[in-house]
Amino acid sequence: MLAPLLLLLAYLLGSLPFAVIVSRAFGIADPRSFGSGNPGATNVLRSGNKLAALLTLLGDAAKGWLAMVLVGALGGDAPMIGAAGLAAFIGHLYPVFLKFKGGKGVATALGVLLGFNWLLALIAVLTWATVAAVTRYSSLAALAAAAEAPVAAWIFSGRIEIVLPVAIMSMLLIWRHRENIQRLRAGSEGRIGAKKS
């Protein structure tokens, strides 16, 4: 019975919608009401409030990392810790608190990578930052980071309990960006820093 309870805990932690929580605390519009409509840090940034966007980013990343730390502290083994990270990530994508309509999962995935190995998180950040700096497209940067993450996990760990959750996260993240991919192809994707309309 312990394993399902630990995974439920991780999912519920991942379901906390920091974009909505932080936006309400700052008195700014619900991020689901403008821009891409995505409850995530990039869309909060479109409100023009950089501090709110930063706090959203940190909160979404922290919940992925914290889920793994808590499950480990409660007796979970390595596969269970990896599963907890994946559960938190799924909680962000499909949060019970937002009627299962969540964000894209980029920041939460970063937190999970950090829970596995700081080097994996660093590589993902560097990939994202490089692509974002060159193109100003957050979605393209996220897709690039998602593509490299399983490869980096395999190279630097080679452990199935790490590679498998990272690969599943990457596939889900790319799937959640399918509309962004269409807009990128059409040349209509919003750029980083664009104001809400």
Structural class: mainly alpha
Rg, nearest Å: 16 Å
Count of discrete domains: 1
Q: Which H/E pattern describes the elements?
A: HHHHHHHHHH
**Strands, total number:** 0
Shape: globular
Mean pLDDT: 93
Percent in helix = over 70%
Q: Could you tell me the strand content as a percent range?
A: under 5%
Tell me the major beta sheet.
none
Enumerate how many helices there are, as a single number.
10
pLDDT below 50 for ≥5 consecutive residues: which ranges?
none
Structure description:
This protein is an all-alpha fold. It has one domain (2-186). The protein is 72% helix and 0% strand. The chain has ten helices and no strands. It has helices at 2-14, 18-26, 41-45, 50-73, 78-93, 106-116, 118-135, 138-156, 160-176, 178-186. The mean pLDDT is 93.
Brief digest:
By secondary structure, this protein is mainly alpha-helical. The protein has one domain (2-186).
SSE layout:
Elements: H1 2-14, H2 18-26, H3 41-45, H4 50-73, H5 78-93, H6 106-116, H7 118-135, H8 138-156, H9 160-176, H10 178-186
Which key features would you list for this structure?
globular, mainly alpha, 197 residues
